[in-house]
Inverse folding.
């Protein structure tokens, strides 16, 4: 769905057209649910927070203006704020919770070296700053554009790109020795 | 290295040319990061329930209340309270004593509701067509004739093996093996839904105004409008049938305005559109014509023919249909609705490959139901035995190769069945176990085994099976 298509549906939703809202919901539900789940890693909490996000979005949709930018970014911002509030109420560390320590069944079925590399990458990833991890998730897992990421985080596109490339650079440096061994092995 | 990773690497090098030195290492890092993405299955029930909740919220907002939605409160028990007012404005032009009059009739549809009523309120769920229903040969209704297809009687549907034609392909019998987890049936009583037809009365007033020079239709007492057709008289126009009694609308291409002589050539595989293209065309049509999809899931393409095409040794001999079917699956209280054979039920559209346009839409139906509790089968082993025998509609051949097929943990959904009583066909949604078929089957694209849970239906179906001969090939 292009932003133009989304904006048309938003306008119709603002006019009270239920089916337009239903279409927006169908398209964005999986994206928002994933976005939240990647951060909280708990199914029930993710469902609660997704529910809260869409309820807030519906309540505020009449205040959304085209000049506010991309609709997707507006919706992701609501989801991000909802997750932040969730951690605040739980009085937990606001550090982004990326539980990379658990490698999935599918990944463990890969060969041992690949698995070890994944574990190393996971460990190093958790050492990155929260914002760096967040940008990696948005760029590589959610495949969001830099325009969307910048509007969600309220930062310039250039700084988001810089965050991403620096994160990769840090990971490469910390994993350098391992990577050389791994590449030699697979070659 | 796939394109996605390649694109990210190029992007990184562009941002920081120093990274070019590590061209060999970067794909491994990026690939590892992508592989760490968790596998996440979305809970469809949650998705549907939240959607219903939000739509109810939207409809009950002051803005929408002013738009005639305030009779929402009258619904006793609604699926998240989805209520739409579909107003069909039917312009009717006719002559009366030389004067042109333009009459406008308004037909108000409540498009979704579930009203809870007492237990077993629909009577026996068994289809008593074998006892009371007229046979296909008999005239139906007071006027006789008509084109309504009747349910086949037990006698006419029984399989006569002597009339069976040897299928032109290899015969396979299937033995289903349950490989799912243990499960329980959550309740002895569950709601069966009966679809309510539209008892709209506003048609009467409309007909009363029809005093033509040829005949005065007012003289027909209590005559009401049952259905009408609209024809779009333009290139690629549509022919719209509105059945007020059934609460159903279908749309078809207006042939006169649609096809030329060159439009009936054989479809080539290069013309077949991708699933995403088909869904985009369908979505656009839905949006353009403001078809209410509030109680349907996201679009899915039904491309069963492609399975046979992929397997064909000589693809040039294979028939490629000129259009693909896209379905928006019906979701009632977060549950999918299937037919006996495991096919999803819902809103269907056909998209023509050549013209890249929607040519037909059917099942634009009101979804108003009565809900009544019935006894369900809770004996899990009994249900598993039926599932492993292929369900209630599977009759094995007497010969042929037997293939084992794995089936997985079932979910509770609805199966659409028909109840024939008092010369009327009632559409019922009955709770059912739906077992996913886990293995790809030869010459068969069956994906699920559906077993109704209502004890009456199970008993009736099993009696029919016991009467059926096994399929003998000659």
């Amino acid at each position: 769905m292009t932003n133009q298509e989304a904006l048309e549906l938003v306008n119709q939703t603002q006019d009270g057209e239920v089916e337009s809202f239903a279409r927006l919901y169908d398209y964005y539900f999986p994206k928002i649910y994933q976005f939240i789940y990647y951060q909280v890693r708990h199914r029930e909490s993710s469902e609660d927070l997704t529910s809260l996000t869409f309820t807030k979005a519906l309540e505020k949709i009449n205040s959304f203006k085209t000049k506010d930018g991309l609709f997707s970014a507006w919706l992701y911002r609501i989801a991000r704020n909802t997750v932040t509030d969730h951690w605040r109420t739980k009085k937990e560390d606001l550090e982004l919770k990326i539980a990379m320590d658990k490698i999935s069944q599918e990944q463990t079925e890969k060969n041992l070296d690949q698995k070890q590399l994944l574990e190393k990458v996971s460990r190093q990833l958790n050492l990155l700053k929260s914002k760096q991890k967040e940008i990696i998730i948005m760029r590589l897992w959610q495949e969001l554009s830099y325009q969307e990421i910048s509007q969600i985080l309220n930062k310039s596109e250039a700084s988001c790109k810089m965050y991403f490339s620096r994160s990769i650079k840090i990971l490469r440096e910390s994993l350098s020795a391992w990577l050389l061994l791994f590449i030699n092995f697979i070659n | 290295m796939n394109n996605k990773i390649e694109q990210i690497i190029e992007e990184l090098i562009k941002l920081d040319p120093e990274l070019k030195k590590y061209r060999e290492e970067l794909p491994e890092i990026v690939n590892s990061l992508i592989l760490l993405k968790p596998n996440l299955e979305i809970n469809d029930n949650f998705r549907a329930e939240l959607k219903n909740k939000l739509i109810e919220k939207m409809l009950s907002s002051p803005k929408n209340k002013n738009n005639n939605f305030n009779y929402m409160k009258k619904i006793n028990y609604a699926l998240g309270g989805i209520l739409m007012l579909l107003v069909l404005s039917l312009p009717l032009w006719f002559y009366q004593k030389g004067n042109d009059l333009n009459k406008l009739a308004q037909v108000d549809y409540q498009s979704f509701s579930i009203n809870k009523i007492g237990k077993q309120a629909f009577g026996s769920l068994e289809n008593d067509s074998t006892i009371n229903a007229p046979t296909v040969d008999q005239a139906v209704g007071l006027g006789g004739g008509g084109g309504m297809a009747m349910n086949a009687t037990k006698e006419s549907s029984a399989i006569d093996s002597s009339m069976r034609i040897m299928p032109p392909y290899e015969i396979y019998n299937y033995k289903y093996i349950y490989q799912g987890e243990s499960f329980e049936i959550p309740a002895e009583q569950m709601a069966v839904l009966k679809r309510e037809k539209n008892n709209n009365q506003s048609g009467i007033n409309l007909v009363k105004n029809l005093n033509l020079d040829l005949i005065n239709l007012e003289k027909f007492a209590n005559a009401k409008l049952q259905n009408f057709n609209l024809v779009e008289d333009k290139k690629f126009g549509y022919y719209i049938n509105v059945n007020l009694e059934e609460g159903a609308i279908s749309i078809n291409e207006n042939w006169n305005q649609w096809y030329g002589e060159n439009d009936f050539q054989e479809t080539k595989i290069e013309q077949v559109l991708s699933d995403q293209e088909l869904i985009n065309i369908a979505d656009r049509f839905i949006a353009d014509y403001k078809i209410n999809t509030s109680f349907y899931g996201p679009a899915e393409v039904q491309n069963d023919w492609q399975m046979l095409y992929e397997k064909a040794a000589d693809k040039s001999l294979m028939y490629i249909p000129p259009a693909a079917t896209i379905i928006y699956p019906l979701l009632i209280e977060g549950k999918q609705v299937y037919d006996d054979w495991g096919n999803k039920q819902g809103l269907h559209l056909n998209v023509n490959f050549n013209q890249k346009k929607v040519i037909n839409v059917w099942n634009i139906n009101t979804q108003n139901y009565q809900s009544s509790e019935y006894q369900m089968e809770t004996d899990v082993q009994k249900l598993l035995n039926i599932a492993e025998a292929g369900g209630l509609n599977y009759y094995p051949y007497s010969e042929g190769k037997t293939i084992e097929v794995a089936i997985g943990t079932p979910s509770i959904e609805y199966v659409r069945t028909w109840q024939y009583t008092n010369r009327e066909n009632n559409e019922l949604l009955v709770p059912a176990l739906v077992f996913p078929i886990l293995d790809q089957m030869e010459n068969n694209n069956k994906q699920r085994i559906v077993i109704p849970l209502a004890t009456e239906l199970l008993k009736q179906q099993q009696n029919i099976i016991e009467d059926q001969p096994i399929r003998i090939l000659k």
About this structure: Residues 65-109, 129-166, 469-474 of chain B have pLDDT under 50 and may be disordered. Chain B has three domains: 3-35, 44-110+199-245+248-365, 128-195+370-467. Chain B touches chain A through 51 residues (CB under 8 Å).
